[in-house]
Write a structure and sequence with these properties.
By secondary structure, this protein is an all-beta fold. It is built from no helices and eleven strands. The strands form two sheets. Strands 2, 4, 5, 6, 9, 10 and 11 form a seven-stranded mixed beta sheet that branches. A four-stranded antiparallel beta sheet has the order 1-3-8-7, with no helix packed on it. Strand 4 and strand 5 (about 45-50) form a beta hairpin. The N and C termini lie far apart (about 40 Å).
Length: about 110
């Protein structure tokens, strides 16, 4: 059974930083590309970043490019998202996702507000 558990969210002021983590289990993590997906209240889910299975290739949606950094540690089956320069519009529930089938687990809430 695929299990993905995101953590590290919280309340942060505009301009602040957070680092999200996701622990994966139930599948061969190092063989799959992974993503971060977020869903803001009343909006559709948005895939904001992808990383290849070996951690080399990364992509970002324009709204987070230059502010967020995705990374992974295959030895630990961990996925990360470093978020800098946070804005109120980044407020959402963030999920880690196996890109292949968009399998997701429990998300973590990020709220950016003064």
């Amino acid at each position: 059974e695929v299990q993905l558990q995101a953590s590290g969210g919280g309340l942060v002021q505009p301009g602040g930083s957070l680092r999200l983590s996701c622990v994966a289990s139930g599948f061969n993590f190092s063989s799959f590309g992974m993503s971060w997906v977020r869903q803001a209240p009343g909006k559709r889910p948005e895939r904001i970043s992808l990383i290849g299975s070996n951690g080399i290739a990364t992509t970002y949606t324009d709204s987070v490019k230059g502010r967020f950094t995705i990374s992974r540690d295959n030895a630990k089956s961990m996925l990360y998202l470093q978020m800098n320069g946070l804005r109120p519009e980044d407020t959402a529930v963030y999920y880690c996702s196996r890109t292949f089938d968009d399998a997701r687990g429990q998300g973590t809430q990020v709220t950016v507000s003064s």
